[in-house]
Please model this.
Amino acid sequence: MSGLHHVTAIAGDPIRNFGFYTRDLGLRFVKKTVNFDDPATYHFYYGDEIGRPGTILTFFPWQGVRPGRRGVGETHQTAFRVPLRSLGYWTQRLQEKGIRYEALEKRFGESVLPFTDPDGLALALVGVPTAGDEPAWSNGDVPAEHAIRGFHGVTLLLDDAKKTAAILADVFGFKETAREGSVIRYKVAGDANGSVVDIYEAKGFLRGHQGGGSVHHIAFRAVDDADQGRMAQKLVDNHGLHPTEQKDRNYFRSVYFREPGGVLFEIATDIPGFAVDEPVETLGRALKLPSLLEPHRSEIESVLPELEGAVS
Ligand code: ZN
Model:
């Protein structure tokens, strides 16, 4: 399998972020942990019932973070899939919850409902006719029939598509499938979660500034370490890039590189997944720490805000 593994974004207030994604959007909270590089802050993972690759949206919530500025060299929009017939339900739900959304639009023949999260992160729901047949998770608030089925894809806003497109094709197996205005669509085979990357070519725009409401990086799937190693080697051999050494993120193993358009890309393994340190039934309930940080649990817990009425 190929395509997107996860998307990681920056938020402000962790409690507000948690409420929005678990209650308003009805995603499952699949992991509560800390930023391994900054253990006084949370790292939240939302996804489907087990956090399958292609469904995982993660956040670094930094209380009081400066808002980002949208621009070139970053992920412009992150889109989820819902059943096509659920777009009416969602339009009404966003309205009832007071969530900012825009009019339904057509993109590459698909119906797209753009909206933003409380930090201004640009999101969208894309109506996919076959998504209704796929398994769905429900916390009881959003009925399973209307539930989000992982990512549709992301839109990157870049000065020039060419070098980034070459990496998408050569390393990650994407193919250009369509063009519409300044947007080029790339897809991996099949119609699974996270199979779409759109590049919006916008020459001469200001560069983005990362902050609250920005995507920090996007991750692509590798089956295992060997698959990841082959991808990293292609980046070196064919694209003159130098990915980082592998980092153990407990739930997957990662290498990172800055693609030529300016977006931070990651290659993350599908293994071992989120059930590696707690059962599927209770994912997200307990604060999970990597073994290196476990001796500091009480200090860490004392500085993290409590998540009231956690649903998982
Ligand atoms: Zn990541």
In short: Helices lie at 14-24, 87-96, 162-170, 225-239, 297-303. Residues 6, 8, 217, 219, 254, 266 surround zinc ion (CB under 6 Å).
